[in-house]
Amino acid sequence: MNAKMKIGLALGSGSSRGWSHIGIINELSTLGIQPDIVCGTSVGAMVGAAYATGNLAKLQSWACSVTKFDVARFLDISASFTGFVHTERFHKFLNENIAGDEDLIEKLPKVYAAVATDLDSGREVWLQQGSVIQAVWSSMALPGLFPAIRHDNRWLVDGGLVNPVPVSVCRALGADIVIAVNLNGGIVGKRLNKMTAKNGKAVSGKLTELVKEYTNLSLFEPANTEQPPGLLDAIAASVKITQDRITRSRLAGEPPDIVFAPKLSDIGLLELYRAKEAIEEGQKCVQRMAYEIEHLLGSARY
Fold first, then answer.
1. pTM of structure
2. Can you state the angle between helices 43-52 and 132-140, rounded to 10 degrees?
3. What is the per-residue pLDDT across 245-280, written as a single tens digit (0 to 9) for each?
4. In this structure, are residues 166 and 39 in contact, taking their beta carbons and an 8 Å threshold?
5. What is the 3-state secondary structure (H, E, C) of 263-295?
6. How far is it, in rounded angstroms, from Cα 41 to Cα 18?
7. CA angle, 250 as apex, 114 and 152 as ends, to 5°?
8. Among 24, 183, 195, 296, which is most buried by a count of CB atoms within 10 Å?
9. 10 Å Cβ neighbour count for 250?
10. C-alpha triplet 166, 259, 244: angle, nearest 5°
11. Which residues are the active-site residues?
């Protein structure tokens, strides 16, 4: 392969399934593949930023230590209706594991971009300059969990609403070869017939119970299939359907050269405590496609 050819890595959205990005990056590194351009959407923007700043090992260590209790501590159920996530704790997490407030995208050793959505126009926004933290946060601002982020006189939310796997961004930034990670394969229809409380009563409408239902942080039994799904269960399923359809459409129109699709459809939205299995599946994805990678990039790359 021509040594001057640039490799782009498009890391897709997918909430807790995004820990698999870490395993994929690590396994690619063992093959001698170091992407020149890193673009991410939502959790992909976060992991991509950690990689670009040299903090990937730190993020992996944190992810593998997370418990259900730690996830619960990130939720602020007493907050206003702008979002469930405790913003101060999340900001501290980003500073300790991703980047400092003073770190700028244009100063990173790799070309980096995060994708967000303009809440007013519905257009995708490519964040290629300025604060790393603000770019990551804007790309991850999933409505309902995070408040929208104000940036350049626009309200920005999760980039997964418009471009779940940012292949197009990698191409635009100069990538000759694009390796993409699609976290949305096989997610539709999973985990829908979820849960009612053990005492047989319907889950309460209180915020605390809604959060428990959405994050799977308490013990439930399978729901009566004759009863409608819970509020947040229905919302989560709707988001999955939307992301699946958008991802299929975008990848068909902007196909990457290599696409990894980790088999993680059983991992829920905020099951961040399942990082080890997600990372391991990411590594296996690369191993399963080792022949195709070698064929595309050439054995001289290794």
1. 0.84
2. 160
3. 888 888 887 899 999 999 988 888 889 999 999 999
4. yes
5. CCCCCCCCCHHHHHHHHHHHHHHHHHCHHHHHH
6. 10
7. 30
8. 183
9. 20
10. 60
11. 42, 158
